[in-house]
Structure formats: C-alpha cells, structure tokens
Amino acid sequence: MHLFVIDHPYHYEAENLCRVFFPFDKVITLHSEAEAEEPQNRTVYTALRNTGAPYYVRIEDETGVTERTGGPETEEEYGMMALLFDALQAHTGKTPRWGMLTGIHPIKLLRQLTEKFGEVEAGRLFREKYFVSEEKAAIAERTLRTQTPVTMDVHENDYSLYISVPFCPTRCAYCSFVSQSVEKTKKQIPVYHKLLMEEITATAAIAKDLGLTLRSVYVGGGTPTTFDAPQLSEMIRTVRASFDMTQCEEFTVEAGRPDTIDRAKLEALLSGGVTRISINPQTLQDNVLENIGRRHTAQQTVDAFRLAREVGFDNINMDLIVGLPGDTFESFCDTIEKVLELDPENVTVHSLALKRSSFITQSGEVNQAHADALLADHMMAYAERRLTESGFEPYYLYRQSRMAGNLENTGWAKPGFVCAYNIFTMDETETVLACGAGGVSKLKDPYSEELCRIFNFKYSYEYISRYEEILERKGGIAEKYEQFRKRIHQIHQSSGTDQ
Ligand code: SF4
User: Fold this and answer.
1) What is the CA radius of gyration of the chain?
2) Residue among 167, 171, 400 to mutate when testing ligand 1 (max atoms within 8 A of CB)
3) In this predicted structure, what is the pLDDT of residue 498?
4) What pLDDT is attached to residue 293?
5) Low pLDDT (below 50) residues in the chain
6) pLDDT of residue 302
7) Would you state the pLDDT for residue 355?
8) What is the pLDDT of residue 172?
9) Is the distance from the beta carbon of residue 43 to the nearest atom of ligand 1 less than 6 Å?
10) 158 Cα: distance to centroid of ligand 1 (angstroms)
11) DSSP string over 347-408
C-alpha cells in the first residue's frame, strides 16, 4: 500500500497502525504525492493542515473510499493517530483488541498512566482514549498488579545481567532471532564460549567499579544448553567468581529445546546455583513440531521436564505458541491440558508472529489471515481461562508486530514464582547489562524514563571477529552512569536527602 504522510512527523505510528489493519500489505511510506510511482492496491493518505480542520485521512482501495477530518487536539500526535484509527476501523469493519496501541510495552504505558492519574483513571484512559477492549484492559490490569511489588522493589543501583548463547540444534521455521544452527556453527562454539567468559569478567569489573547491585541473571538465546555440561559449569563459575551475587536471588537458564537436555547438563546447572530453567515445548503435538522444524517429539519434552524435576528443579517455565501451522483449536487445548498436568511454575504463551510469505495463495490470503486471527484469539482465550483456573496469574506481557490475531505474549506464574528479570526487561525498570552476540545493554536512569542502549554485534561470527569493539562500546556504560549520577545527586540535593 501507499501510505502518504503529509506535513506531520508521525510516520512510524501511522505505519504501525496500518499494519494492525492490513498485516499483509507492504507499507510504502511517501511524503508527497509526486513520490508515488507504481500504483498500489491501497492508499492511506494522512495529512496535517494548518487551516480549517487540521487532520485529514483518506483510505482508498477496491472496497471503497473512507474519509475523515478532525482536530485540533491538545496532543497533536494522538489527535492524528486517533483519526487514522477511526478511519481504519470504519473502512475495514475490524475492531483491534488492543485498540490503537501499537507499542510493544502496553503494561509500561498502563503503569505510567497509573502513576500519573491513579488506577481508576488509568483504566478509563486505557479503554476510552486508546480503545483497548475490555478483556485486554482487564489482563493488562491483572499483569500490572502482579508485577508492581517487583518493580516497587527496585533501587537506584540495581541491575540485571543477560547472557546470550545464540546457537540452537536446528533453526525453527518461524525463528526471527539471530540464533544459528549448531550444524553450521559447530567450530565457532568453543571460541565463542572463551570470548563470552572474557566479556562476562569485563562486564563484572565495570559493574563493580560503578558500585552496582546485581539482582537477577538470565541466560537466553538461542538455546544455552547447546553448550555441553563442562561449558555450562564454566559459564556459571565465571559469573559467580566475577559478580557479587549476594543480592541476586534469581538465576535463569533457558534449557529451551528438549533435544539439548540431559542429566549431566541439568546437574551442572543445579549444582552451579541456577534457580529457574525453561523447557519449551511450543506445542505437544508431534505433527506441529514437525511443521515448525523442531527435530524432537512431544514425549522428549515430557521426559526432559520429568528429568529436571528428578534432578531437583522446583521452578520451571514452559513456553507455548498459539497460531502454529497445523495446530487446531482441539490440539492446542490438548497441549495446554498436558502442560498443566506436568504442573510447571511458569507458562509463557506466545503468539506466532505472522509472515506474509506464510500464505500459499494470494486470492485466499485475506480470508486465511482472518481465520488464523480468529483461531489464535480462541486459543489465547482458552489458555487464559485454563491458566487462571489452575492458579496462575499473568505477570509480564509484551507485543510484537504482525502477531497472530494482533495478540500478545504473556508470562504466567504461580504465586511466588514470578521471574523478576522478565518484568525488569519488559517494563524497562532497571539496567540490564548484556553479554554475548545479539545482547543489548539497556542503561536505565532510575529517576526518569531515559534508557540508553549499547548494542553487541548480532551474529556469533561478528562477535568473534570484532570482539575488541564490543569491549570498547562497553566503555560507554561508565560514561552514561556518570550522567545519571550527576542527575541523581541533584535530585537528592534538592530534596535534602544527600548525605
Ligand atoms: S529454539 Fe528459539 S532461538 Fe532457537 S531456532 Fe527455535 S525459535 Fe529460534
């Protein structure tokens, strides 16, 4: 489609809103009519005018033309996007469950609204200003309530550590991470492991110099258990030897794929002090596993879970995905019931991010997309109901673009088993220092929403060949903290609390 963004700067929001309604259109954004070359199947025209009705939207495609004028609003961006949202709804007849929210952190927005206006007014704004449906507003409020005790307990020097192991046994068909299959990268793993240990040690030195307090460790990827048992032990030993762990109550390792788990690795993790692991079925249907290119069976997941219990893990997460190819409503429900029988402490329900290429025929595309969205929606509602009935509460939630049914990913926990790291990273409450390929350190100013990102190289081969540059970039951590601390000092001085 052509998206015209005339005389306003809100192209990013406009593009995201268009994708909510037309998830399979390629959005070509233009800033003047003269730029339009090849005619497209659809045109969305948005303009900010200085005279008369300031906002103007026109949508045109084979189904007809919809026009709207409106404004002005006190908040210009909101006014423009609300008008576009209204026009898109009228044109398509669709009512997105998350209303006009397109960001990935809806709970963070709800928290900010709650801090500013109180719980009742925040709930009203969520529903009436942003048009969030009753059921999504309700789950957002439940999630915020579960995570508030954790976010309230963050102190200004707290941080978490993220370690990335970007290798997997094979690459899943839907994967959009930087992870690479072990078959292709076997030789890289020992070199990567060695450099990762060095980076962990260097990062610990930076945190120590800054007097930061480590609260949680999360090893993700990829599949960290592609490392063998001695490599896992060495990684944990390196963390423990270099960081002050006295305030760190949570140490998660994603054991991810059951085909990477064995007793030796589980024992290495547990004896090293890992407190939480993930064993991720995604589905417990063998035909669906085959469709997504995971070379293991549902039984292997069940066996890996039982083995982890036998070894002694008392905090296990299981990831599931709604909207996988070949999964039906009945087979998804069967997966949920089998997972509940295993009785994990956490269940994370993801929505598959849809790709335009996943549809075979152009002619059936829209109907197929609609059918898939409805199915994903039913699956998600079933998961929500059964997890609630089984004593779980939602504790973190985030969204991605092009998710099946325009839904969300939600982490559910039994009481006392929330994973603080997941909350910190999604709510962007505290600093996360990251090590490894694809890692992004997020430095959080404790007294504002300012967040500074420092990127490691994405792929393992770049990480290995340009490792020195990563260490140089990490020099920026101390610099940024210097700025934060000046501000903190001023805040303490003006409130008379500086010692
Ligand atoms: S296990 Fe996860 S990271 Fe690895 S290939 Fe599959 S989706 Fe990607």
Assistant:
1) 24
2) 171
3) 52
4) 85
5) 356-364, 499
6) 97
7) 53
8) 83
9) no
10) 30
11) EEEEEPBP-GGG-S-STTHHHHHHHHHHHHHHHHHHHHHHHHHTT-EEEEEE--TTBGGG--
Does any ligand 1 atom lie closer than 6 A to the CB of residue 182? no
Ligand 1 atom 2, closest CA: 222
Enter the pTM of the model.
0.90
In the prediction, which pLDDT does 187 show? 86
Give, using CA atoms, the residue closest to atom 5 of ligand 1: 171
Q: Pick 150-481's CATH classification: 3.80.30.20, 2.40.50.140, 2.102.10.10, 3.40.50.150.
A: 3.80.30.20
Q: Is the CB of 256 under 6 A from ligand 1?
A: yes
**What pLDDT sits at residue 354?**
58
Tokens of 11: 């192209």
380 lines ligand 1 (CB under 6 A): no
| Contacts (Cβ under 8 Å, ≥6 apart) of 21 | 88, 89, 91, 92, 94, 96
2-92 folds as: Double Stranded RNA Binding Domain (3.30.160)
Annotated domain spans of the chain:
2-92, 106-149, 150-481
Please identify, by atom number, the ligand 1 atom nearest to the C-alpha of residue 256. 1
Which atom of ligand 1 is the closest one to the Cα of 168? 4
pLDDT in the model for residue 24 = 80
Interatomic CA distance for residues 467 and 489, integer angstroms: 35
Q: Closest Cα to residue 2, out of 22, 10, 91?
A: 22
User: Ligand 1: which atom is nearest the Cα of residue 170?
Assistant: 5
**How many A from CA of 256 to the centre of ligand 1?**
8
